[in-house]
Amino acid sequence: MSATAFIADLKIRAKELKARSEFRTLNSVTAYTGRYVWIEGIRYLNVGSNDYLGLSVNAALIARVRSYLDKGTGNCSSRLILGNSTLYRQVEDLIAEWKDMDRALVLSSGYAINVAVMQSLAVSQRRTIFLFDRLVHASMIDGVRATGKKWESFKHNDLIDLERLLIKYHNDKEVWHIVVLTEAVFSMDGDLAPILDILMLAKKYDVLCYIDEAHALGVYGVEGSGFSREFRFKDYPNVISVGTFGKSVGVGGAYIAATSVMTEHFINTMRSFIYSTALAPVVLGTIFESIKIIRSHPELGKSLIRKSIFLRKALKDELKHHTANPSIIHTEMLAATSPIIPVTVGSSEVALALSNHLRRNGIWAPAIRPPTVRRNCARIRLSLNDLLLESDLKDVVASIADFFKNENVR
């Protein structure tokens, strides 16, 4: 295909995406305070970011990290060359202690980790099969597919379906290296995985268990550490925990926590670790200081959970008067406690209409559409932060209810 023909195909694809209300554009954020965000100079109530604890704009944290700028603006080398500063050791030791696991590694992003680890786990000469919850993050699926290894998905949070697959490959005449993948808190639905049950299955069948705690960190667990201490991951030597610092921690980067043997394997085989420039000192310093704040203020996560419960109940009480669609206020949504609250409307057109309605009412809650979610599962995803007031949440509920009063969107 010629370059001219390729560009013509791109134009056709863009036109098709626009026709399905799935074309994406970038919005310019001109200011951000956590509670509010300014888009193109207009102020909106912020229920669209992952800054769960508001730490990215926390004055005490910002004051603490200023001194790290004196260490330079960048490391300018990969960690295996000259980029492995003593600050890395301090941060990774703190993470390992916080998570109560043998060792930790810090990388540039959660996406990079989820792709890199899958490739690293697939280097075994044995046949490898990845079994993942069908709603895991796209980065995990991309990582699995990039390995070229066999994979199967199991029904969302369905332990019976997972065990069916474990039995299938455990009893196969071929010897399989099996890796089970799940999120702790699912990024689009906000529900929690049955982690302890999955850990027990992984132990029963002697398989690796990979848990992405990106949306659990800072919100759940002892000292906001996620679930690794609550469920004693260290008692399961086959467990790998990963998470990001671009959410509750309020900065960027990500971590892997695992056994020493596993961590050394990653250092020697993860291409995105080996060939990436090390993070800047100020990023590492922010991770370090932010974790210390989270550990000393566990009430932040608890406060956020209370706000989530309040909003979920308020949505149920209000929307039952205005919509007959049970998927919008389904049982799973009401039972969860995470700061991620989906309002699922089905079509991309309706999701965009709801998002635009909220925008006109001064609320920023972007539409989530395919391919991020499955077709006919488009939604707005309310993503709370602890800087929001109860009155703000009431305004969000009132605006959503006002939208559903229109008979055309029931």
Defining traits:
globular; alpha/beta; 15 helices; 410 residues; 7-stranded mixed β-sheet
Task: Explain how this protein is built.
The protein is of the alpha/beta class. The protein has two domains: 35-57 and 298-409, Aspartate Aminotransferase, domain 1 (Alpha-Beta Complex), CATH 3.90.1150.10; 72-296, Aspartate Aminotransferase, domain 2, CATH 3.40.640.10. It contains 15 helices and 14 strands. It has helices at 3-19, 59-65, 79-83, 86-99, 110-121, 138-147, 159-170, 195-204, 260-269, 271-274, 281-296, 299-319, 331-335, 348-360, 390-404, and strands at residues 29-32, 36-39, 42-46, 103-107, 127-133, 150-154, 176-183, 208-212, 239-244, 254-258, 340-346, 363-364, 367-368, 378-383. A seven-stranded mixed beta sheet has the order 4-10-9-8-7-5-6, with helices on both faces. Strands 1-2-3-12 form a four-stranded mixed beta sheet. Strand 5 (127-133), helix 6 and strand 6 (150-154) form a beta-alpha-beta unit. Helix 2 (59-65) packs across helix 11, helix 4 (86-99) runs parallel beside helix 11 (281-296) and helix 5 packs parallel to helix 6 (138-147). The longest helix has 21 residues, at 299-319. The radius of gyration is 22 Å and the shape is globular. The mean pLDDT is 93.
